[in-house]
């Protein structure tokens, strides 16, 4: 993808939305485009967290090592941010469920960029916090639904 088209894509990505054109160019400088085949493993639980991805097209599945799907990440979705933020190993396996194109941003490049431009760092950390809070709220709702389903089944067992 050429640079002007990539700029238009990056400015629409929620975690970068609101950055000035100059700062968007700095972000673009550390991005690389990656392509994944359907069924290809992007990373495994326990791997080093050296980068995060923003899905441009296709879908990525976040799974336990046993294969249980925890989440499906589509266009403009982010994966791998937890490990980049915490510097801990990957917590799940990521698999492309169909042909997928994603932007890759390396942790070391991101750290250097955020050290050089604190405004970018603040913006990205704030957006990561919003993303993680949204996921936590969604997971809380799933747990609540699960709890009430179990409670209902316990009180009224099927015959």
UniProtKB/TrEMBL annotation:
Residues 15-131 form the Cyclic nucleotide-binding domain. GO terms for cellular component: cytosol. Transmembrane segments: none annotated. Pfam families: cNMP_binding. GO terms for molecular function: DNA-binding transcription factor activity. SUPFAM superfamilies: cAMP-binding domain-like. InterPro entries: cNMP-bd_CS, cNMP-bd_dom, cNMP-bd_dom_sf, Env_Response_Regulators, RmlC-like_jellyroll. It comes from the Bacteria. This is Cyclic nucleotide-binding domain-containing protein. It comes from Handelsmanbacteria sp. (strain RIFCSPLOWO2_12_FULL_64_10).
